[in-house]
Specification:
Number of strands: 0
Strand content: under 5%
Oligomer: single chain
Distance between the termini: 188 Å
Order of helices and strands: HH
Radius of gyration: 67 Å
Helix content: over 70%
Shape: elongated
Structural class: mainly alpha
Length: 188
Amino acid sequence: MSGGGTETAVGCEAASGGGDKKRDSLGTAGSPAHLIIKDLGEIHSRLLDHRPVIQGETRYFVKEFEEKRGLREMRVLENLRNMIHETNEHTLPKCRETMQDNLNQVLQRLQAATDSVCRLHQREQERKTIYNDHLLANEKQHTVQWEEFMKEQHRKQAAVDEEHRKAVERLKEQYAEMEKGLAKFSAF
């Protein structure tokens, strides 16, 4: 691959010589096996280990996102600042002016309405007073008329009772005379 020599099988070689000295199992740094293993490691990391690439892409995405977000937030804040400035400079004074003009008119109308209501209430109270006085006068008049009617009824009752008593006495006298007349005839 990138080592340039012949390819040989990779394996662990047993240590040759005395037991004290450890030998590198892959041989020396410049050996073809070492280069092949290094190349295989690079290929393996490129094919299977994507962490560095993903980390780089992630950093790039976060950086772009923060920049775009920061710019978007800056635009939003600038728009808000402009709206607030416009509101403070133009809209609020117009609203205050309109409100003061209309408020004076509303207060005048409210005062006129209050005066009208007070007059109507006073008239209604006067009408109620007159009506109550009229009712009291009618009630007194009806009471007097009722008393006179009852006196008249008692007087008429007394007259009828007297006439009835007189009629009963006349009938008694008449029957007494008739009994005397019958008694004369029964004696025969």
